[in-house]
């Protein structure tokens, strides 16, 4: 009987502890406090961020209170979200049809844009997004080819009080035959919800669509499925965009102001507490935090005792001057989670007072990389979104984190070429590797072979004698068929003649026959010495990400014509090295053929001109650096064309005019001028020095 009572008592105690454990809360806390106090221990509760003991110099409690009429419970937010976004557990594996993208292998990533209806209102920002997609290499006008679909309906602003709000989206998208509950669809959004709570309600059910959204709450973000994009204004440029404000080796890295913020202060509603608290860090010296109450129609109804002073102080400082001269840039939330200042501050790094100068400079350099690679234009924001999705679709040939977070950025690293870092020229230095010790010569031939004395015959002999030459490829672009192998001279390296299909751009195709990293691009009438070839190749091995060669050209801005000009005059600087005699990495063949738009390549083929200028534009856009000119004999002259062959193209005045037009066309597509001027030239040691020629390694360079 006694044993039975003991078991009953133990069972009751266990039940009591289970109830306490289940309900938790105040009972557990009081019990814990009681037990610890009995042991003589002092219990220190977790600090409350509104406790004056922890914020002695900051906001008063009454200043940090949110308007009770606008507060929203977490449960209400979740209910609002679940009502609109019913597929909150979507992942690529569950809500995306991969088969649509793999019908054509790697070429299967195509994006279709639904046509807009006649009376549709499309904002300037959304029109830029659609333009970026429509001009990309992924666009298709045939929905049957599409892997991804983008709405023609403007979904950027889903604030019902906004003039850009488009009603009845749910009804319209359900009428699309290809909607399929949003599967394989991409929806862009910058603003969601409306006053006073600004929830993330888009006003229509996105279903299984991928959401590319600014101000995306982590609670609702679907990892590996949605894409977080920055909030950008309607004035954000379509292409190019401004360069960052960091000049290389800017010393000292700290600026006049340690930290700054200048923006609206919301007097009521969501976001008011965040910016309300900022004025307490303002000292008017190295920390500047400026807010104004003067916004909205009825701001005076809600003005507080600080408004008049804040408004006056706000006008004393120029925003651009603060932004350019601040080490820190605060990015506090406003009504929504996102802020335009995220993009603005990427041009000035955000940091903290305790961070050392070296770290400040490193962070500033990193923001420049991110800004210029992904955020400086609408084009880059949209293409980055598409490339992220493409990497998820073709995960076996996707970019790694190093490629995304290192120069030149993921948009210029095409994983279809390779997923190995050591195969790209701009990673050699960081990896501590050197390029190969051999090159492939690619000779562009447009004239029929009618004589053994033609310049191409001597050029073959000169190049093949180089100890670094691995093979020679003749790209035959003549109207007449190539001669038999017996017509070509005997050489110590393999010779391959391949059909160029009479296209000028074929010289930059990623020919599978090219086995070396280095490519020596040559015109058929180029006049060089073997020693010149050897020296230029050794220079290229030190600068494998650049074009290294001989004939220089330059560009300039013509203020009268308000256009770019092109010149072949010998001057003290240059920005182009012609690819008629130049070394570069073979990856640029792949980038030229797969990154540049078909419209530019078609222009080159139509005019049989400008391919060398376009390649210089491309390489400088990747590196942000100029090409490198090496020493060449000044006695170089163009030889007259052999009898029976076409005259050289540069003898035609129209040839030069076309090149002028090409420079402006290329600059327009890139959105800026990527070419960089340089006065740098590399000569051999002892070149032109008054010493014995016997002491010089490259003697022939001075004799001719």
UniProtKB/TrEMBL annotation:
Pathway: Protein modification; protein glycosylation. Pfam families: Exostosin_GT47 (PF03016), Glyco_transf_64 (PF09258). Keywords: Disulfide bond, Endoplasmic reticulum, Glycoprotein, Glycosyltransferase, Manganese, Membrane, Metal-binding, Signal-anchor, Transferase, Transmembrane, Transmembrane helix. Residues 439-687 form the Glycosyl transferase domain. It catalyses: 3-O-{alpha-D-GlcNAc-[(1->4)-beta-D-GlcA-(1->4)-alpha-D-GlcNAc](n)-(1->4)-beta-D-GlcA-(1->3)-beta-D-Gal-(1->3)-beta-D-Gal-(1->4)-beta-D-Xyl}-L-seryl-[protein] + UDP-alpha-D-glucuronate = 3-O-{[(1->4)-beta-D-GlcA-(1->4)-alpha-D-GlcNAc](n+1)-(1->4)-beta-D-GlcA-(1->3)-beta-D-Gal-(1->3)-beta-D-Gal-(1->4)-beta-D-Xyl}-L-seryl-[protein] + UDP + H(+); 3-O-{[(1->4)-beta-D-GlcA-(1->4)-alpha-D-GlcNAc](n)-(1->4)-beta-D-GlcA-(1->3)-beta-D-Gal-(1->3)-beta-D-Gal-(1->4)-beta-D-Xyl}-L-seryl-[protein] + UDP-N-acetyl-alpha-D-glucosamine = 3-O-{alpha-D-GlcNAc-[(1->4)-beta-D-GlcA-(1->4)-alpha-D-GlcNAc](n)-(1->4)-beta-D-GlcA-(1->3)-beta-D-Gal-(1->3)-beta-D-Gal-(1->4)-beta-D-Xyl}-L-seryl-[protein] + UDP + H(+). Residues 107-348 form the Exostosin GT47 domain. One of its GO terms (cellular component) is Golgi apparatus. It is found in: Endoplasmic reticulum membrane. Belongs to the glycosyltransferase 47 family. Glycosyltransferase required for the biosynthesis of heparan-sulfate. PANTHER family: ACETYLGLUCOSAMINYLTRANSFERASE (PTHR48261), EXOSTOSIN GLYCOSYLTRANSFERASE 1 (PTHR48261:SF3). This is Exostosin GT47 domain-containing protein. It comes from Monopterus albus (Swamp eel).
